[in-house]
Design a protein that fits this description.
Blueprint: H1 3-57, H2 62-143
Helix pairs in contact: 1-2
Length: about 140
């Protein structure tokens, strides 16, 4: 194969790796955002449960206690309803990272191949140069 083909292939692999890394970062950021929101909602629910217990101990009205309990339950339900999305984003994040790592490895493998190929060509060139120099020296000795 010509070196131009390998250059194009290398450029394509670089673009592919860059896209997959960017996608991985986007999905990871979205996962972190949704997960942090969900953790925050769960934290609020725990706070409301604590407030509810304190209010009950202080003898608050039934209406206020019921309102606090319902709000806490709604927060918990919201957090629970977000779990499938959080898990899906976690899975997508893992898959995107794996793809980015695979693309990076493909690029690294091609670059390693090209470096070895270049080194082999250089060695062949030097060997050819040495052979040509030996031939010239041999020809000079034979003419004397």
């Amino acid at each position: 194969m010509s070196s131009r083909v390998f250059e194009v292939l290398q450029q394509m692999l670089k673009l592919r790796k860059d896209r997959s890394v960017a996608q991985s970062k986007r999905v990871q950021a979205e996962y972190e955002r949704v997960r942090n929101f969900n953790l925050q909602v769960e934290s609020y629910a725990k706070d409301y449960e604590t407030q509810w217990v304190k209010a009950a101990q202080q003898g608050d009205t039934v209406l206020n206690l019921q309102t606090q309990v319902n709000f806490g339950l709604n927060l918990r339900a919201t957090a629970k309803s977000q779990e499938p999305e959080v898990q899906a984003l976690k899975s997508q994040s893992r898959e995107a990272l794996d793809k980015a790592l695979q693309d990076a490895q493909r690029l690294k493998t091609l670059q390693s191949f090209l470096a070895k190929r270049k080194q082999q060509r250089q060695q062949q060139f030097e060997k050819h140069e040495d052979k040509a120099l030996e031939d010239v020296l041999q020809a000079r000795q034979n003419t004397k």
